[in-house]
Amino acid sequence: MLRRIFAAVLAGLMLMGCALAQDCFTIDIDTLDLNSLNSDDYVERKLSASTQGVRVVKYLSDSSELAAAVRLTLTQMDSRTIVYDRDYGYQSGTFDSGVIYLPYAGDRTAPYLITLYVGDYVYALPFMQLQPRLQGNSACTAGLRLTDVGVSLGGDWQMGTMVDLSSSTTLSVDIVASNHYLVGQATITTRGASLKVDLSFYDSANVSLERSPLYLITDCQAFQSGSTGPAYSVGEWIDLGSASTAMIYLPLRLSYDPSGLPAFAYGHGVDAQRRLWQQNIGPSAAPDPYVPSAPASSWDDGWSSGWSEGSGWDDGWSGSGDGWQ
After folding, report:
1. Under 8 Å CB-to-CB from 78, ≥6 apart: which residues?
2. C-alpha closest to that of 72 among 104, 51, 48, 96
3. What domains are there in the chain, each with its CATH number?
């Protein structure tokens, strides 16, 4: 009995050490519901982690006289490649595989099959190696790349969203993180001579928002010279004055989990954004070389395909991953 208590304490200490190191995920087979391994929800909660490695723990017996032959294999299921195969010999007490470091999976979730052989018993269970959490990454609303219009703020992929202020409306715009993932949506609401921006993030992204200054650029020519004006807060009503168009510039900094998020592709709806930009800087300014000439009817087509107008949030995915709804 004392030996079993000691083994349990030892397993707990190993679990704590692994958690502190934050580079491995400990799978204690005795704590799992083996009848739920076919449930995606259960696997997501109990057998998924964004760690470099795993360790497998299983109580075997109280006595060395009951020692059993132990073998452990890990198979990367996408490629059907066995990445780990070890015979541990005869084991008793609590089996501990030690930390097993997994191959780098890149920009994706890697599924594994973990198989533990204990004598005549076989324990087979899935493990999902998630992408590592991305810390302190840049994000912004989808729209017009600043570098395309001669603005040198925020790096080479940052965007601002041009808005037509001629009527009261509500627009939903995707939030793009790391120039690659859609992590949520911004709702831009105009009411009379006021505007506000609210943010919502997808639950699966588990976003921690670290910085969210909001700039309302009503003079795009001054913006090209580096003038942003004052920083406002998300959720704050902002006076528009007499502006008929403006750019929302929202350089966010956040941390998030990228696994399963849709990818962003730049391009769709950009022509309509460039025309709004040109409208703001006025006919006396040098024409934007990126704005193509087009018949008036293309204005309506670009606008309707680039925005989703309504009274509230559109919580579904955009599907196309282009940043527009």
Report:
1. 110, 111
2. 96
3. 23-129 (2.60.40), 134-309 (no CATH)
Q: Please tell me the distance from the alpha carbon of residue 173 to that of residue 248, in angstroms, as a whole number.
A: 11
Of the candidates 178, 185, 180, 137, which has an alpha carbon nearest to the alpha carbon of residue 161? 185
**Secondary structure of residue 9 in the 3-state scheme:** helix
Residue 268 is classified by DSSP as: T
Closest CA to 318 of 186, 182, 205, 200: 182
For residues 135 and 211, give the distance between their C-alpha atoms in angstroms, rounded to a whole number.
12
User: Is there a contact between 144 and 159 (Cβ–Cβ < 8 Å)?
Assistant: yes
Q: How far apart are CA 313 and CA 320, in angstroms?
A: 18
β strands within 50-180, DSSP E: 53-61, 68-76, 81-91, 93-96, 100-101, 110-118, 121-129, 134-141, 144-145, 159-164, 169-177
Instruction: Scan for tokens 């191959």, then name that residue.
Output: 103
State the Cα–Cα distance between residues 74 and 112, nearest whole angstrom: 7
What tokens were used for 289? 């070389």
Task: Give pLDDT tens digits along the chain (325 positions).
Answer: 444 444 444 444 444 444 433 578 999 999 999 999 999 999 999 999 988 899 999 999 988 888 999 999 999 999 999 999 999 999 999 999 999 999 877 778 899 999 999 999 999 999 999 888 899 999 999 999 998 888 877 778 999 999 999 888 899 999 999 999 999 999 999 998 999 999 999 999 999 999 999 999 999 999 998 888 999 999 999 999 999 999 999 999 999 999 889 999 998 789 999 999 999 988 655 545 444 444 333 333 333 333 333 333 333 333 344 444 4
311 token code pair = 């009274």
Strand partners, 59: 94
Question: Which among 266, 277, 249 has a CA at the least distance from the CA of 306?
Answer: 266
- Report the candidate in 83, 256, 273, 74 with the shortest Cα–Cα distance to residue 178: 256
* Phi, then psi, of 194 in degrees rounded to 5: -130, 155
